[in-house]
């Protein structure tokens, strides 16, 4: 992971670590926020996208990369590919917001629209693989992506090697799987903990049952966390994540508002889930030194929950 960080460092920001005395007092612990909302394209996913492309050989890069995503990974792969002069083909549901499509196009991504079902997305992505020879890169269930996402927690531990816990949100599982590996190899008696919306708690259920579970519904404001775990990241999470804490919608909104008000930074609802998890179980973190990964800051400002 250290070598990987060296490879992608020229193309990413080493994001700042911020703290708030008032939030520390409320939480009863010392919290350090790793602010990936300040990352290029506004989220941690730039790291994984670069990692995946960097691992391709020259002939593979010429054929390009393809993914299916309606949000941050679509933008991340487009910008990462542009940074490395690689064609990027992005399958997006026709229901995706125009602002997100515009962002992908501005980064050079070539969009194919399709109906919003997973089956349609996968079909279109596979079609592009066959027609163009492009390399399919999954937003979260890809080992190179997972290792790239883990570099955020690795940087956090480089700067603060005595952290007791690293907490991050859980959606598709790429961030928490990568973070848990960083904690395992670079932490000092540190544990990795996940935060997840109660309305989309498939990862919590998966750890309980020992197999990948689905969400029948995912009615949560944390839109970035509606995806499910994959067969590559789930075993990593099983082995290296000590706990997943579930939080309610009101707890997510309260935490998001708290960060906006007290730290003066913009975070998306998915990011606020990690702080909500710490505030939910203060006894687990009392007097500890806690790192929180703020996953992103791509917010629809016309549709705030507060």
List keywords for this structure.
single chain, 306 residues, 2 domains, 6-stranded mixed sheet
Structural description of this entry:
The chain is α/β, with parallel strands linked by helices and 306 residues long. It folds into two domains: 193 residues, Rossmann fold; 96 residues, Rossmann fold. Helices cover 46% and strands 16% of the residues. The protein has 15 helices and ten strands. The strands form two sheets. The protein has a six-stranded mixed β-sheet, sandwiched between helices. It has a four-stranded parallel β-sheet with strand order 5-4-3-6, with helices on both faces. The protein starts with a helix and ends in a 12-residue tail after the last strand. The mean pLDDT is 95.
**CATH-assigned fold name of the largest domain:** Rossmann fold
Summarize the helix and strand pattern as letters.
Answer: HEHEHHEHEHEHEHHEHEHHEHHHE
- Give the tally of β-strands: 10
Estimated radius of gyration: 18 Å
Q: In whole angstroms, how far apart are the ends? A: 39 Å
Number of domains: 2
Give a brief description.
The chain is an alpha/beta fold and 306 residues long.
Per-chain topology:
Layout (H helix, E strand, L loop, with lengths): L1 H7 L8 E2 L2 H7 L2 E6 L9 H10 L3 H6 L1 E4 L3 H12 L4 E6 L4 H9 L3 E5 L3 H15 L2 E2 L6 H7 L1 H9 L5 E5 L4 H13 L4 E7 L4 H8 L23 H8 E7 L1 H15 L5 H12 L1 H4 L3 E6 L12
Parallel strand pairs: 2-10, 3-4, 3-6, 4-5, 7-8, 7-10, 8-9
Antiparallel strand pairs: 1-2
Helix pairs in contact: 3-5, 3-8, 5-6, 8-10, 9-10, 10-12, 13-14
């Amino acid at each position: 992971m250290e070598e990987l960080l060296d490879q992608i460092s020229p193309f990413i920001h080493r994001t700042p670590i911020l703290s708030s005395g008032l939030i520390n007092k409320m939480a009863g612990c010392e919290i350090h926020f790793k602010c990936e909302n300040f990352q290029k394209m506004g989220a941690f996913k730039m790291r994984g996208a670069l990692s995946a492309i960097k691992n391709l050989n020259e002939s593979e890069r010429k054929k390009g990369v393809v993914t299916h995503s309606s949000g941050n990974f679509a933008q991340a792969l487009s910008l990462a590919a542009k940074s490395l002069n690689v064609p990027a083909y992005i399958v997006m549901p026709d229901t995706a917001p125009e602002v997100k499509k515009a962002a992908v196009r501005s980064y050079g991504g070539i969009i194919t629209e399709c109906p919003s079902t997973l089956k349609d997305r996968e079909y279109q992505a596979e079609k592009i693989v066959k027609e163009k020879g492009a390399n399919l890169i999954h937003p979260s269930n890809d080992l190179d992506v997972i290792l790239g996402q883990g570099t955020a927690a690795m940087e956090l531990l480089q700067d603060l090697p005595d952290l007791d816990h690293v907490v991050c949100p859980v959606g598709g599982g790429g961030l928490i799987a990568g973070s848990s590996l960083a904690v395992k190899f670079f932490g000092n008696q540190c544990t990795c903990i996940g935060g997840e919306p109660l309305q989309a708690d498939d990862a919590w259920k998966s750890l309980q049952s020992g197999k990948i579970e689905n969400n029948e519904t995912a009615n949560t404001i944390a839109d970035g966390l509606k995806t499910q775990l994959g067969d590559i990241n789930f075993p990593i999470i099983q082995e290296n994540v000590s706990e997943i804490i579930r939080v309610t919608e009101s707890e997510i909104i309260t935490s998001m508002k708290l960060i906006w008000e007290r730290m003066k930074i913009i975070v998306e609802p998915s990011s606020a889930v990690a702080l909500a998890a710490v505030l939910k179980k203060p006894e687990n973190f009392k007097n500890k030194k806690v790192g929180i990964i703020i996953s992103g800051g791509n917010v629809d400002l016309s549709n705030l929950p507060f």
